Amino acid sequence: MIDLYTAATPNGHKVSIALEELGLPYTLKVLDLSQNEQKTPAFLAINPNGRIPALVDREADDFAVFESGACLIYLAEKTGRLMPSDAKGRSRVLQWLMFQMGGIGPMMGQANVFFRYFPEKIPAVIDRYQGESKRLFRVLDGQLKDHEYLAGDYSIADITNWAWVRTHRWSGVDMDDLPHLKRWRDAIRARPAVQRGIEQPPSRVDLTRDGDAGAQRFAEDARRMVEMGQSLKGAQP
């Protein structure tokens, strides 16, 4: 049995999707990020960085894994699925996984902060992060022009990138001119395990669309978290 410490974010949903795809039994432990439950001593003992997701494998002497990419690799290697075992195939998957970890996630995450949450709108900063997110989308679209999936068969590389790409509207990034990326997004969204995974846990707001009252409340809660983080940073020596 695996304990999954998570919340309804793209990074959290990566791991719940993988667990559903692999059919591994797990217990969902949802943390309230607005209440800083991810900063409690109990959770910091699992992840010293105080971020979700993290997992504890009860069948492996309560072995803890943090960072979403590390969780995906651990689950793939534990089961021998969603990542090839040969060196070249494994490397291809890891390359596209790192592409998301170092590019798609950070750029879309910063686009979210400055487009949605930051109290002051700074157009040049918003353009920077939305523009770089769109550039990375074009890279994905180019790879998917001649490939059904990013790295051969469906893998953790697809899961990790899809969990973020599906929320492109929330980041203010369009993909209307990227047909191969849209085809891939829709094909993965149709997978039953993926549909189950993005409900573990369900989000309070649909980050794939925009404009409703729930989205506004979500953005306001996130803005308060950003402002709190700024205040805490300013208080540090």
TrEMBL record:
<dbReference type="InterPro" id="IPR036249">
    <property type="entry name" value="Thioredoxin-like_sf"/>
</dbReference>
<protein>
    <submittedName>
        <fullName>Glutathione S-transferase domain-containing protein</fullName>
    </submittedName>
</protein>
<feature type="domain" description="GST C-terminal">
    <location>
        <begin position="86"/>
        <end position="205"/>
    </location>
</feature>
<dbReference type="InterPro" id="IPR036282">
    <property type="entry name" value="Glutathione-S-Trfase_C_sf"/>
</dbReference>
<feature type="domain" description="GST N-terminal">
    <location>
        <begin position="1"/>
        <end position="83"/>
    </location>
</feature>
<dbReference type="InterPro" id="IPR040079">
    <property type="entry name" value="Glutathione_S-Trfase"/>
</dbReference>
<dbReference type="InterPro" id="IPR004046">
    <property type="entry name" value="GST_C"/>
</dbReference>
<dbReference type="InterPro" id="IPR004045">
    <property type="entry name" value="Glutathione_S-Trfase_N"/>
</dbReference>
<dbReference type="InterPro" id="IPR010987">
    <property type="entry name" value="Glutathione-S-Trfase_C-like"/>
</dbReference>
<dbReference type="Pfam" id="PF13409">
    <property type="entry name" value="GST_N_2"/>
</dbReference>
<dbReference type="Pfam" id="PF00043">
    <property type="entry name" value="GST_C"/>
</dbReference>
